[in-house]
Amino acid sequence: MLQVIQSNSKSFWPALCALALSAVAAYSVFSWFFQIQSIAVAPSAVPNAIQAVVPQTGQNAIQSNHVATALGAPKAMEGQSGANMAASSDHQWTLLGVVAGASGRGSALLAVDGQPPKAFLPGQTVAPGWVLHSVGHRLARLAPSQQDTPSVTLELPKPEN
Predict the structure, then answer these.
(1) Which domains does the chain show, CATH number per domain?
(2) What's the average model confidence in pLDDT over 96-110?
């Protein structure tokens, strides 16, 4: 038989443990709630950093072409002859990639005058007065808008093995 013995002395330990566990559970619920609320805040509420424009002169000037080359970007105007460089001296062309099929169709990823790169199809205007004439394996040809023959050829550098 089962006997239940009741004592007159009451212990406070079970009540204290229940209170502690309740506090931990409440803390957990509130911390999760506030984490979810912080994720739900719109990104536009984050303040933007303001970049100060400082004129760069002398030896401290940062040359973006050298920085880009150091970070692995292909050199600007690589693969152009002297005549092509004179023809494109008013623009800085940077060929970043080419997707071309055997049929000659494809697109070229070009950055013009330091702008972010964009994909261009043959016949599209790349810069005022210039169109992408054609693409080939690792190269893109540019032509002035009024001419049918390309006068600027941009090549990707040879891959290192």
Answers:
(1) 79-155 (2.30.30)
(2) 82
